[in-house]
What we know:
By secondary structure, the protein is an alpha/beta fold.
Amino acid sequence: xxxxxxxxxxxxxxxxxxxxxxxxxxxxxxxxxxxxxxxxxxxxxxxxxxxxxxxxxxxxxxxxxxxxxxxxxxxxxxxxxxxxxxxxxxxxxxxxxxxxxxxxxxxxxxxxxxxxxxxxxxxxxxxxxxxxxxxxxxxxxxxxxxxxxxxxxxxxxxxxxxxxxxxxxxxxxxxxxxxxxxxxxxxxxxxxxxxxxxxxxxxxxxxxxxxxxxxxxxxxxxxxxxxxxxxxxxxxxxxxxxxxxxxxxxxxxxxxxxxxxxxxxxxxxxxxxxxxxxxxxxxxxxxxxxxxxxxxxxxxxxxxxxxxxxxxxxxxxxxxxxxxxxxxxxxxxxxxxxxxxxxxxxxxxxxxxxxxxxxxxxxxxxxxxxxxxxxxxxxxxxxxxxxxxxxxxxxxxxxxxxxxxxxxxxxxxxxxxxxxxxxxxxx
Length: 427
């Protein structure tokens, strides 16, 4: 349906509960349209007050108001020829609704403070989690604008209405977080029996949390958050001493020594953040000072106050170690298109990059070219996208990495691990 609707220039109204994937569908509409090579521009209508929404959409002239020191194009102009995505459209104030209706009908408009009309050609896709029919009946939303926006309406069903999607989505998020880990049949049964009030977004968060505490290669029901087990009618594993929730993580264990459990949790967080204490503290939901105190308490720091050994990284853990680095990477997709991105971090199995303008252009096998950190020698390898987000970041998983280059990369990573205070264990 998305592919068929994308070929039209009609405006689209996407409805669905929070977290169901409305923006993802909107981006897919743009990607499959004839405007895919033109700009994609988005605005959250609920994030700005009325006067700023109008100036953002339609722009303003120099001197239009205090602080307007130069002319600014509006989002309609920036999206001309492409797609303008208006999220939370139900939050628009009545004054802006009137002006938006005229533009949707093809009428030129004035920038704020301007005396020359501007004509644009932008396809509008809008999204809302509200029932706009009720908003129209109550007078909060204009009836004519509602029908103009909804030339085509797409409803994204909540996750509880499409339980057949849970297995595929959960496995997708799991491979993004920890490649090689898989769900046990019992854990998948628990996920299917949960109602998911937060929809796909909640499922993603649960999978990320569970992957952080799972051990081995199988994620079991005991690794899932207690509230998921309880809501699904599953027995909650007993713990010898409850450890309070820390941020996004609920730690479950049968370890009787609470201090040892806390120590293991801290070491696991440090391993998952590549030894970065600031990010580890954020992940654990504690302050950087508290984490530093805990490290000293458990003799994980030198007596002189400098960071000491963080722990031991075994061979499996070394594969997930990510070292921060900023290098240029050339990507060529399956269509032969080339573009450049910058790395955020690098591991033996892949890299995180920024600058992915359109993640859908990275489908299939990619060819990467980048300099090895230790020698600067250029290496070519194959990769696939493991995950991508709306901040133009993506995780790339290596495939067919050259053996000699892999050895060079591993030496550099081992050096970085030791510099950060890890003890490297080689079987």
